[in-house]
Amino acid sequence: EPARPPRLADLHAVGVLAEIREISRIGKGEEIILLISTLERLRLVGEVSSEPYLTARVEYLYETEMAGNPELKAYSIAVVKAIKELIGLNPLHKEEFGLLMERSDLSEPGRIADVATALTTAAPAEKQQILETISIRERLRKVLGLLQKEINISQLQARITKQIDERMSRQQREFFLR
Predict the structure, then answer these.
(1) How distant is the alpha carbon of residue 17 from its chain centre?
(2) Distance CA 47, CA 50 (A)
């Protein structure tokens, strides 16, 4: 059964304008990976037409230059510190962060919030909520909460792994002693 064309009601009210940087196919299957670069946040204002494809009016949600704001700089530093802690706990994030750093300008607090959100394993709905947060201060605050949850999960995972390793070592010692 062919998929129906998307309707405006199928889309989130806030999204991003993005540029496709790279397209890769995984194996022989139908899966493809898109590497995109986000350019601007936007809000859907209304539908222009639905044929032959969906076209909509949008308003761009430009972010003001905030690099010099002391409060936002402090939030940004806290987010970067949390990212470093997360990378220390889970090396898988190091590679992801490296890829994001290659393609992102982290001089702006809003961009830092976006990169940090991308690093988390938060549910898509939580990530969408961050995307829809226009206030940079509020977005950074929410991202700090997401990062803290991610750090807590990584710490718990490390404790569980350590307990399993200790149990296995103890069982191996007992086996060899017998």
Answers:
(1) 16
(2) 7
